[in-house]
Each structure stands twice: as structure tokens, then as C-alpha cells.
Amino acid sequence: MRNSMEPPTHRSRKGEVPEKHPQAALTKSFTGFSRFTSSIGIRKICFRGKTLWKVILFRIKIKTMDNTMENNYSQVDLIREVFHYQSRFEGSTMVFKIDYPVIEEPGFPGLVKDLALLAKTGFKVVIVPGAKENIDVVLKQHDIESTYTPADDVPVRITTAQTISYVEMAAFNSASRFMTFLSGSRVDALIGNFVRARGLGVINGIDTEHTGTVDKIYTDSLTKVLNLGTIPILPCIGWSPSGKPYNVPSDEIALSVSKALGAIKLFIITAKDGMNVTRLTPQETEKLINSNSTLFQRELKLALKASQAGVHRIHIIDGREEGAVIKELYSNLGVGTMIYTDEYDSIRAFHSRDLPDVLRLMEPLMQKGLLIRRSAEQIQEKKNDYSVLEIDGSVRACGALHDWGENQGEIAAVATDPGYTDHGLGKKIVGSLIEKAKKAKLKRVFVLTTQSQDWFESLGFKDSNIESLPQQKRKVYDQARNSKVFGLEL
Ligand SMILES: CC(C)(COP(=O)(O)OP(=O)(O)OC[C@H]1O[C@@H](n2cnc3c(N)ncnc32)[C@H](O)[C@@H]1OP(=O)(O)O)[C@@H](O)C(=O)NCCC(=O)NCCS
Questions:
Q1: Please, what is the angle between helix 69-89 and helix 355-367, to 10°?
Q2: Ligand 1 within 6 A of CB of 147
Q3: Atom of ligand 1 nearest to the CA of 418
Q4: pLDDT by residue (tens digit) across 382-420?
Q5: Which pick of 9, 22, 108, 428 has the fewest CB atoms within 10 Å?
Q6: Domains of the chain, earliest start first
Q7: Cβ(421) to ligand 1 under 6 A?
């Protein structure tokens, strides 16, 4: 049990979630977006050149489905999340930097298929293939050994006049591997000269010759291509205005193109087991880099630079995992590590429009007798007492603070979305209700609970009794329910 009221940064890794957990069902259900969409009867409809998604039939066969509330819940919740993110990001540009080892993986065709699907459903997809390991192989075949620029930030391979043609060969080979599978998915793609480069010049007395850096991204050309629904592929080569080729690190190209196009997301897709951290702020990212305690130095440095360049969300994911991009994109919790600069989760006061969401959270818990039954009218009546916790604009937890006089407040109706338990949301919402009570100058908060006493104890609440409750509350205490009383002095 984590003690802090901080947002969670760690999560269960693949395989650690029990099968019956709704989140496991959600994750499992993501296996192949197309399989998912067809399974629930969503069909893509093209209308006047615009891609619209329309639910023509929700084939949730209640009769044949396992009829538990949790299973219904996770499937419906999954559909909600997909639509939420689809409408939120449609038409936006996303850049995918894909390390070369991912291209060699058996799951690579599936990954490209998912990128094609994103392009078909209205996202603007840009691919920046890595080629480092492929270049290594080609140079080795020609008995050429690489040297690197002095290790300053990230060392760069020195590309000489002798090696540039081999580097070009390997870079274009890596790009054309994407072409092959995108053609299979019937999506237009273009390997293009969108990068103007200039030479790195002489560093510490060493002429770096054909080693280049991004001078300019031809944004207009890229935008034209993207507006046609075509996927541009940018190999790690740039050209000077006179046509001289330079080898430019693909990380740098991904960064520059994300910045130039105002991409909303940069995906850094690796062939490494993911970090055991779901979310990082740029400050946390910097700390992690400086601590030298991670195998993700290069990726985190790129992510940090991208966040400083204005990309709000950078996702580091393991490209070997089936459907990793789709899972990361369409689920609030994702599967990789997200470096974010915009607001991800927040607690705010309840608005009337939140009523359906709050009832959705509370209903299964009321049915199980974990929460006292409250009607929509009763919640509305006390609406100023309620707070909600949103993740990416969706309500995922709620709670209320009722003032019973005698300087005491009751923390009640605490509920976390079943797909989001054990991620610290409950602690966060209770923490904010305690802060609210302190601001209201209350001296004590209490809870009445039937099955969550241990949880409240872990948050510092102490076993108490009915006599400690304010008189008004004692009058309505339900003897039959026999809830335990726990209190916290403020
Ligand atoms: C209790 C509840 C709000 C916790 O929500 P949550 O968002 O999962 O909580 P957190 O993520 O902050 O804490 C999770 C931790 O508490 C533990 N926990 C969850 N419910 C618990 C319970 N009833 N008793 C003891 N521990 C519990 C989890 O095992 C987890 O432990 P870990 O951190 O060691 O892995 C949620 O389970 C819920 O909605 N319960 C039903 C409603 C209820 O009882 N509300 C309280 C009365 S108002």
C-alpha cells in the first residue's frame, strides 16, 4: 500500500493483473483494434471525404455474454474510452520514431497495420524509422568500422564520403520495410526528402564530413502530403540546398518534425521491455536522466527535448507488444511511459453534467452494499459536497464531504472506477476531501464503512464509535447496516 496521496507512477506490469480484473479484460480486449471494432460492430463510413465513425450496431450480446456487472462494465467502458480518444485526437498529427530492432521483430507487420489504421481513421501519421543497427550491419559487410563524435550528449556516427552511400542504402532499406506493409494495408505512403540538412562540420579537429544536423523541415510539403491522407516516411538522411546528402540521427529528425508540425504526440517505439513507470513530468524525467539509473537514457533525453519543444505527450513504448500503440493511445492507463506537460488528471468540484458518471461509478457498489444507496435527486441536492477525479476528461473516481455540524465532516460516497483501482485515485480523492474539510475549518472527519476499514486505517483514520459522531448523524445512523466508524482529527 502506498502511503502518499500523490498520483500513482507505478503500475502492474503485463501478467501481474489477475485475469478477472476488469482492466485485464480491457487490456486483453485491445488485441488488434480491427478485431475489436468489428467485434462490437463499429464500421468506418466515409462521407464527403471525411472519415466518420459510426456505431451501426452494438452487438453486445447480453444473452451470451458473461452477465456479471464487471464484464459488462469493462466492455462498455472500453468503447467509451475509444470514442473519447478518437474524437479528442482525430485530425491531429502524431510522429512515430521507430527503432530499427522493432522492424526485425515478428510483430512488426501488426505494428504497421495499426499505424495504417490510425491514418485511415483520420490521424495524421508521420513515420521516422531508425536505421542504426541496419547501418552497422551494412558497414560491417563492407569491413568499415564506425567512429563517433566525442561523447557530448548523444554520440553521433561520423559518416565519411566513403560510407555515406552505404548509410543511404541502409536508411532507405529501413524506410522501405514500412512501405511494404503499408501497401499491404492499402494506405498511401511516401518516402520523402522533407529534411534540409547541413554538415556538423569539424568537431575537436575531426571533420565529420557527411554527418549532418537538421537545418529545416519542409513543413509545407509535409502538410500537403498529410492532408492527402498519405503517410510520410522520413529516412535518417537530409540534403543540403545543393543536394549533398547527410546522415542525420533519426531521433533528431523525429524531434524536429514533431516541433515543426506541432505534433500532439511523439511515440518513441523501442524493442526493449518498458520502464515500470506509467507517467513522468518533464521534471521527473530530468531527475531520472541525471540519476543515471535507467537503461532509457537516450529515449528520455529525446522525450525531454520534445516536451521542451512543445510536444505535450511523449510515449515510450515497447513495440514488440501486440497492439502497443493502440493500447497506449486508446486507454487512459496505457501500456508504456508517458511524459506529459499538459494536465492528465485533476480533481474538481462536481457539476450536474457529472451525474451520469457518478451514478455509473456508484451503482455497482450500491448494489453490492458497499455504498449506501443514493438517488440522482439526493446527489443533486448535495451537489456542492461532491468532488470528482478526471483522467483525460473522463470521471474515474468520486467522493463527498458532508458537513454534519459540531465541526465534523463525513467523507462518503468514495468510489473508484473498477478499471482504475489500485492506481492511487481513491487516496487522491480522500486527500482532497480532507483538504476541503481543513479549508472549511472542520476539526474532524469520519467515515462509516462496512468493508473498507483497513483502507481508511492505512490513510491514518482511527477506529472510533457511534458516540463520537455529531448528534445529527447519530440520529440517522442505520443500526441494521452496522457500519464501522473511523475518524481522523484534523
Ligand atoms: C476503497 C476504494 C475507494 C479504493 O480505491 P482505489 O482507487 O483502488 O484506492 P488506491 O489506489 O488509493 O489504494 C489501493 C490500495 O488499497 C488497497 N485496498 C483497496 N480496497 C481496500 C479495502 N477495501 N481494504 C483494504 N485495502 C484496500 C489495495 O489493495 C491497494 O493496495 P496497494 O497500494 O498496497 O496495492 C475502492 O476500492 C472502492 O471504490 N471501494 C468500494 C467503495 C467503498 O468502500 N468506499 C469507501 C466507503 S465511503
A1: 160
A2: no
A3: 39
A4: 999 999 999 878 899 999 999 999 999 999 999 999 888
A5: 9
A6: 90-340 (3.40.1160.10), 345-489 (3.40.630.30)
A7: yes
